[in-house]
Amino acid sequence: MIVELIVLLASIFVFLQFVKGRGGESNSPTLEEAEQKLAKKELEKEKLVKKSTSAQKPTGKSLKKLNQASKKLDHKEFEHGLLTNTLKGHTKCVNDISFSENGKFIATSDGERSILLWPTKELGKGNTSYRYNTAHDPALSVKFAPDGKSLCAILQKENTVALFQVAKQDGGSYELKHISNAVDFLPGAALKRAKIAVQFQSGVQAGSFLYHEYSNHTVVLSDLRGNQELHRFPAASGSNGKTLLSPCSKFVVGFGDSAEIRGWAVLFKSGSYASTKKLHSLCGHKSNVSQAAFFPDSSKLISLSDASGFKIYDFNSADWQRDDTPREAEAFPNQWGAVDSILISPDNLILALVQHSSIKFISLRTKVLVLEIKDIFNGAIKSVEFSPDSELVAVAGDRCVRIFKNLPGLIARAHEAKSKLMNPNCNETYRNRLLAELKSDQKQINELQKQLLSS
Ligand SMILES: *[C@@H]1O[C@H](CO)[C@@H](O)[C@H](O)[C@H]1NC(C)=O
Ligand SMILES: *[C@@H]1O[C@H](CO)[C@@H](O)[C@H](O)[C@H]1NC(C)=O
Ligand SMILES: *[C@@H]1O[C@H](CO)[C@@H](O)[C@H](O)[C@H]1NC(C)=O
Ligand SMILES: *[C@@H]1O[C@H](CO)[C@@H](O)[C@H](O)[C@H]1NC(C)=O
C-alpha cells in the first residue's frame, strides 16, 4: 500500500505541477524523471523485502504464528481503496468473466453450476444478478459476442459450447436464455476456450464463426450454431502451448512450444467461409514464447519470452494476410518477474501482469510500474478483464469478482493528454477539450487518492 501511495502521490504531484504552470515547466521534474525515480524506489523496496525474508528463516513457533495470522486473514474481508464492487453469488470458484462491448453487462461463470449476468447499471444495488443454472456442469469460460446480446459458455461435462441470449423481461429484469449447444467436435480432448467470432469490414459484418480451442491446442472453426465444422488445425503443441484468436477474429496465433509465434488468417468471401491460411511466423524471440496478448483493437500483439523479454509486433506495418510479416515495433525487458498471464487495456495505455493473486499495472508508454494490487484472493486469479471504456478492471477468483477503478489508466491518460498538449500543432478546440478532460481526470485521481489514503 505504501508503494502505491508513493507512486500515486508523485504522479499527482507532477501532474498538478503541470496543470498549474502549463508550459513553464523548466524547474519542475518531468513525468519521465518522476516515474524513473519511482521505479527505483520500487526496486529498492523489493530488495529490502528479499533481505528481510531471507534473514528470518521461520522457526516452528513463528510458523505457527504465521499460520494463525493467515487464518485470520482468510476471514477478513479484502479491502482496497480502488475496490468499487465485489460481485458475490457464486458457490464455487469463479472461472471467467466477460464484459459486453457496449459496457451494459458482465457475465461470470463458476466451477459448480452457475452462469451469472450482471447489468452494470445495477452493480452495488443488492440483488443484481440473473442466474442460469447449468445443472451441476462446471462452466469453464464465458464470453460475450460483439453484439452484447448473445454469449457462449463452455460446459465441462458435456464438453460443448452452450449459446445464450440476453432476454429482457417485463418489469425490467433479464434472463439468460439458452439457445442451443454446439457439437463436441473432438470428443477425445477437453474443450478449453470458445468465442463467438465476428469479422467486420469497414463497419459491416463480413463473416462469423464459432471458435473452439481444445486441450491439445487443436482449433476447430465451425458455423455460428456449432453444427457444421469449417476447418480444424493444430495451432500449438506441448503442455505450454497456447492459442489466441484476435479480437477482430481475423487471426489465430499459436505459441508456447518454441520461440516462434505461428499465425493463421481466417478468410471469408462474400459472407461465406473461404479458407484458413497459414501465415509467416513471428520469429524475433530467442527462447520459448510464454505469453502473448492482442491489443484490444487488434493493431498489435505483445509477447513475452525468458530470453528476449517483451516484444510488440505491429500489424499496421504489414498486411499479414497478404504474406507480409508484421514488424517488431518495440522490445523491452521484463523487470517484473514471472507472469501467469498478460493483457492490454482497451485504450492501449496499460499492460497488466497477473502473478498468482496479484496484478501489476505497467504504463505502456514509459514501461514503468504504476501500481500493484496485491493478494486479491486466497487462491490464484482466474480471469481479468478491463471494461470496454478502460475505467474499470474486473478480477475473478475464489468465489467472487472484485472490480477496481483503473487508476493507473487514469494517470496514463493524463500523461497522454499532456504530451498531446505539448504538440505545437495542437489547435485551440482540441486543446480546450484536452484541458477539460485533464481537469475531470485530475478530480477523479484526487478522489481515488483520498480513498486509497483512508483505506
Ligand atoms: C434476486 O434474483 C433472483 C434471481 O434472478 C430472483 O429469483 C430473486 O427473486 C431476486 N430477489 C430479490 C429480492 O429481488
Ligand atoms: C487432439 O485430440 C483429438 C481427439 O483425441 C485427436 O483426434 C487429434 O489428433 C489431437 N490433435 C493433436 C495435434 O494432438
Ligand atoms: C520449449 O518448449 C518445448 C516444447 O514444449 C520444450 O520441450 C522445451 O523444454 C521448452 N524449453 C524451455 C527452455 O522451456
Ligand atoms: C484539431 O485537432 C484535432 C486533433 O488533431 C483534429 O481532429 C481536428 O480536426 C482539428 N480541428 C481543426 C479545426 O483543425
From TrEMBL:
PROSITE patterns: WD_REPEATS_2, WD_REPEATS_REGION. Residues 1-21 form the signal peptide. Keywords: Signal, WD repeat. It holds the Pfam family WD40. WD repeats lie at residues 87-118. This is Oidioi.mRNA.OKI2018_I69.chr2.g5832.t1.cds. It comes from Oikopleura dioica (Tunicate). The lineage of its organism: Eukaryota, Metazoa, Chordata, Tunicata, Appendicularia.
